Amino acid sequence: MAVDLRAHYSAHPEKRATLYFLALGFVVFVVGSLFGPFQALNYGGLDAYPLLRRLLPFLNSYYQGLTLHGVLNAIVFTQLFAQAVMVYLPAQELGLRPRMKAFWLAWGMAVVGLLTAAVPLLADEATVLYTFYPPLKGHWAFYAGAGLFVLSSWVSAYVALELWWRWKRAHPGRVTPLVTYMAVTFWLMWLLASLGLVLEVTVLLVPWALGLIEGVDPLLARTLFWWTGHPIVYFWLLPAYTIVYAVLPKQAGGRLVSDPMARIVFLLFLLFSTPVGFHHQFADPGISPFWKGVHSVLTMAVAVPSLITAFTVAASLELAGRLRGGRGLLGWVRTLPWREPAFAAPVLGLLAFIPGGAGGIVNASFTLNYVVHNTAWVPGHFHLQVATFVTLTALGTLFWLVPQLTGKPVSEGQKRLGLTAVWLWFGGMLLLGLGLHWAGLLGVPRRSYIVGAPPDAYADPALTLPKLLNAVGGVVLLLALVLWVGVMLGLLLPRRREPALLEAPLPLAEAVSNADGRRLGRALDRLGLWFALAVLLVAIAYGPPLARLLEQLNPVAGLRLW
Amino acid sequence: MDEHELHRRVLTYERGWIAFALGMLVLFLALIGYTLGGQLAGVVPHGEAERVDPARVRVEGPWADPARLVVKTAPGRYTVHALAFAFGFQPNPIEVPQGAEVTFKITSPDVIHGFHVEGTPINVEVIPGRVAVVRFTFRRAGEYRVVCNQYCGLGHHTMFGRLIVVPSQGEAVEGDGR
Ligand code: HEM
Ligand SMILES: [Cu+2]
Ligand SMILES: [Cu+2]
Description:
Number of helices of chain A: 22
Number of domains of chain A: 1
Largest sheet of chain A: none
CATH architecture of the largest domain in chain B: Sandwich
Strand content of chain B: 25-35%
Structural class of chain A: mainly alpha
Shape of chain B: elongated
CATH topology of the largest domain in chain B: Immunoglobulin-like
Largest sheet of chain B: 5 strands, mixed
Oligomer: heterodimer
Radius of gyration of chain B: 23 Å
Shape of chain A: globular
CATH superfamily of the largest domain in chain B: Cupredoxins -  blue copper proteins
Distance between the termini of chain B: 57 Å
Distance between the termini of chain A: 58 Å
Bound molecules: protoporphyrin IX containing FE, copper (II) ion
Number of helices of chain B: 1
CATH topology of chain A: Cytochrome C Oxidase, Chain A
Structural class of chain B: alpha+beta
Radius of gyration of chain A: 23 Å
């Protein structure tokens, strides 16, 4: 049957916009990840960069590639994915059409910001890594483009919040539906969290790079960066959590065990995500150890919602497995739909998230942190979190979301290819994660072109095995990346469309226990109040130390050392 | 199992899990507090803002005076004025006696660097315009490697220094810093 696509998109313009965000996100993911295996080989003691340079002649150094890897993966891909699903899912759940002008404005700002930042990155004019700590000084277009890109997320936040307000006005007294609740807490968290980065870029870095101000205080800049830099990990994570709470139990054939618990989790993230940034600055001078201690305690608090998530999601999967006839202590695991990449991807990601989370607690522990700070342990940690769990969940989402957005079916062959890519990605990341953690414990620094160091610098025999793990992990991941390109092309290129797929409802899981009509549900729904409390916590945790930094400002001149 | 019973059971396990999780976190915090009290207290960089002009640290003040790079301040106490610059460390090597309490005052004349003494928890960000102050007592004599672990430019991966802990009683104690 033919599909009148134009009619469908004019009835559902948000689908087209969502598809644009998703597709651009995945292109960025592929380009950004391309550098990864070469970095992994570097940490395997093998210099494959000359090879990469033949492929990409504009590449001048390891650090230029690393900047592209960090910026494209950690900042651009993750945000584009959030801008797609955290607007689309609530719109579908509420049955409302987003304000399309604003939705497209967000898209336009994201694209212009990305292109503006890309020019200096590709021209080697901003090889400052994705943390761009001054006084290393990049081209102004990099800071301006990155700033515009991040600001486009504020427009997406408006689009999602406006949906919620519209729904609230039409349903006075009702408790917000779950996915919308997640989206609203998510965007409120991000508005507060991104303030640090936006201030850093607009007030300090852009004027400085343009030559309007002489110098920048590097410690103030770092502090503003990490105001956003920790909660940004929840900005990456919560879209994936939304999917594993709201969609995964349904795909597993079960239900979400507790709707109120899911709300509490998101609320805790709203409250505790931001006032914790000093756990990235334990090693910084000039910040009172007292305030580092306060942030350390609050960091432990923000581990709580993830620990609850581990329980709720595992319990929901167990319920599904038992409903499918699984028996015994672990028999339910086998009955789950492992052949579906949309299921296997997030679940394998969650498995990697467990050791990754344990390592995160090590990083956040004030005194243990000095053992691992800025060693290869740290990228080992976040590749289990963002590059495995978040990324696999995003990739798994393709298998049910693309058909819904385009009407294009997923063939059995594509599913098998996808499943192979999922397992290779998972396996490769485990190898790389182990290798990097291990090398870090032996003192190998992160962000280092170690194959360019003096020949005996990393020749310690104790490093043989971790280096091997890194190299093998990198090769496996390169293979997986190639397969992902195949999967995406296989999903997007075929011309056949099925109307039923376009009309299919969101695969949202029902909950065993609900929040609507309950006192708890209404209390959790007072989001204005909760947001005010989150602002207060940030004011307490950052107010006094920031005031002192401003008092003791010591701007220094910029330098270009690449 | 009916709906009600299922929900009740899940709630029981859930409460147990949350109690366990909170207990663990409190235990971790207690351990962190405990370790902050001992030898590790010194490796937390000072909170006081000691500011310098990065453009002048190489020409004036303690980092520019060869006599003041390593100074004995009291019996068994030393202060080291170290510089992390693109792309090296000064003094190099740093020599301190075994068992002495060493206070490092580290700064940078250019961009941010790292100062990680391998195999120890001395691991600080060296920020131009600020002085990072950390304290440590080396129990094991021998040579340690200092690594810059913060990206500082194209020569970053070649930026190493040496720290030599001189045996106190004259007998050489082997140790490679690990
Ligand atoms: C093919 C897959 C990938 C491989 C083999 C890989 C490998 C690596 C390695 C070895 C490093 C450390 C480089 C260094 O410190 O010098 C690194 C850094 C990093 N990676 Fe990946 N990566 C991959 C995909 C991803 C993905 C999907 C993300 C995020 C969504 C990601 C985010 C990052 C970030 C944020 C850094 C830190 C950059 C910095 O320190 O400036 N990576 N990657
Ligand atoms: Cu963090
Ligand atoms: Cu360096």
